[in-house]
Amino acid sequence: MEKEELVERAIEARKMSYSPYSGFCVGAALETEEGEVFLGCNIENAAYGPSVCAERTAIFKAVSEGCGDFSQIAIVGAPRGESISRFCAPCGVCRQVMSEFCRKDTFMIHLYDGKEIRSYTLGELLPLAFDLDGV
């Protein structure tokens, strides 16, 4: 799938965000090597700790359905009711989860600010990852 189409799917996923506390809505679209796409949104909780990011929602959905070979993810975010106007990079926890399931040198992370898409490998966003290679 082209990255532009994956971004459009992430924008769709953002509409499902449950974010009554932060008001910041995030959507993610994760593509497997086989071309299957899993959507995720951020889901908050009053206790904050149980909240989950859009990226992890998509990854956990895919893994729970038996998928594990991922090629790329698109991530978008903005305050509720506002247009996407800045890049929304994955948090450290999401980067760590990606390092568990994605290849550092080939897995692509696409960020969209409403105008352009910037793409990075996981290794670029998480150098010196704590993973099985480093344990």
Word description of this protein:
- The model has no long low-confidence stretch (mean pLDDT about 95).
- Helix content is about 25%, strand content about 25%.
- Strand 1 (about 25-30) and strand 2 form a beta hairpin.
- Strands 2-1-3-4-5 form a five-stranded mixed sheet.
- It has one domain (about 5-125): Cytidine Deaminase, domain 2 (3-Layer(aba) Sandwich).
- It has about 140 residues and is α+β, with helices and mostly antiparallel strands.
- The radius of gyration is 14 Å and the shape is globular.
- The protein has four helices and five strands.
- It has helices at about 5-15, 55-65, 90-100, 120-125; strands spanning about 25-30, 35-40, 70-80, 110, 115-120.
Give a quick set of tags describing it.
Cytidine Deaminase, domain 2, 135 residues, alpha+beta, globular, 4 helices, five-stranded mixed β-sheet, 25% strand
Structure at a glance:
Helices cover 27% and strands 25% of the residues. It is an alpha+beta fold and 135 residues long.
What proportion of the residues form beta strands (DSSP E)?
25-35%
CATH superfamily: Cytidine Deaminase, domain 2
The value of Rg in angstroms is: 14 Å
Question: What is the top-level CATH class?
Answer: Alpha Beta
- Outline: globular
Number of extended strands: 5
Arithmetic mean of pLDDT: 96
* Largest sheet entry: 5 strands, mixed
Spatial strand arrangement across the major sheet: 2-1-3-4-5
Query: How helical, in percent, are the residues?
Result: 25-40%
Which residues form runs of ≥5 with pLDDT under 50? Answer: none
**Helix/strand/pairing class, anyone?**
alpha+beta
Write the element-wise H/E pattern from the N-terminal end onward.
Answer: HEEHEHEEH
Number of domains: 1
- Oligomeric assembly: single chain
| Through-space gap between termini | 34 Å
